[in-house]
Amino acid sequence: MSGNFYSGSSAAIQGRKCRVCWKNHWSFKTATSRLFIHKDRVDRHLVSCPHGHKARKGSSTYLNDHGSIPPRVLPFPSQVVYNRVGKCGSRTVVILLRLLAEKHQFNLISSDIHNKTRLTKHEQVDLMKNISKIPPPFLYTRHVHFLNFSRFRIEEPVYINIIRDPINRFLSNYFFRRFGDWRGEQNHLIRTPGMKDDERYLDINVCILENYPECSNPRVFYIIPYFCGQHPQCREPGVWALERAKQNVMENYLIVGILEELEDVLLMLERLLPHYFAGVLNIYKSPEYKKLGNMTGTVRKHTPSLEALKVLYHRMRYEYDFYNFIRDQFHLMKRKIGLKSTAKPPAYAPAFLRDLALRTPQPLDEDEELDSDLEDANSWLVHP
């Protein structure tokens, strides 16, 4: 994949006398898939001063003497979206991005909206238009399910993301909601002010084995919708959502890494997007960063019983199919650029599900009306 990335010449230069705007769009194939990546659509305008600019007789202007002002060359790609998945290391990555944005002078827009991952059509268009207006180079990040820019004829950005073992993600969120992290256990009172003690101290085995809503579908069907998109069927556990999520990854994501191999993910990002991530490993390994990063770990987390794990794994069988697909794709990418895999076996992979056969039903119409009345199944997640 690394041989398919080029530098594009696009710019947005602002000066007192004139302004040059460039836009263009590219799409090309990688070794494993078709990847649609914008360059910046070329649409050049020379604008003189607001009151007009006329050269006096016998005098010359800069443009007369030198021609057009050469545009600043933007890195390619220069528009990146990280639709971060909750409890998949996103807070760690956002801390790194804040440091990198200052270092490399790109625009970082990190949304504070954590509990609205599903949007109406109107909300989708508004958000995508706002994203497209951010001065490049930029990186926009938010907890939101995949947005199909091309469906609404809006310039497509490059997507990146990170996921983790689904049960580990679930456990991290379960205990984080109740007890917070190392920044201070009292923070959980702020995040869940209406939570009663019966719920806060609910044994996770009871939650799973007695089929409490928090430990059942559709709430445990969490990762796939981030990649499937905004279609109502994307929130229903099944093969249709699974296959659409895989397709979107192959067509729209530059990289989807796994949290269990975070250092390799950062190294890949540094190689694929150096204008955003150059030096990220040095920052990540620095003592100063470790002080910040160590505050993001969930407290009081423990593992459920084997019986509960088996039940939970079965409920998450589609999530694990997707996770294994992402892990395989990530390892393939590492091999192609010469990185030795430091892969570890999945944390939870009982043999009784290895041969689970899944059949793909007929996809629904992409343009089926989105249901704006349903509440987000994961609206209780109020923090990355």
From TrEMBL:
Q: Where is the composition biased (Acidic residues)?
A: 365-376
- Mind telling me which Pfam families this protein's record contains? Sulfotransfer_2 (PF03567)
Per the record, the domain of life is Eukaryota
Which GO molecular function annotations are given, in alphabetical order? sulfotransferase activity
Q: Which GO terms describe its cellular component?
A: Golgi membrane
| UniProt-listed Gene3D superfamilies | P-loop containing nucleotide triphosphate hydrolases
Q: Where is the signal peptide?
A: none
Tell where it localizes: Golgi apparatus membrane
Region called Disordered, residue ranges: 365-384
> How does this protein lie in the membrane?
Single-pass type II membrane protein
Keywords associated with the record: Glycoprotein, Golgi apparatus, Membrane, Signal-anchor, Transferase, Transmembrane, Transmembrane helix
The similarity comment for this entry is: Belongs to the sulfotransferase 3 family.
Its protein name is Uronyl 2-sulfotransferase
Q: Which organism is it from?
A: Oryzias melastigma (Marine medaka)
Taxonomic path: Eukaryota, Metazoa, Chordata, Craniata, Vertebrata
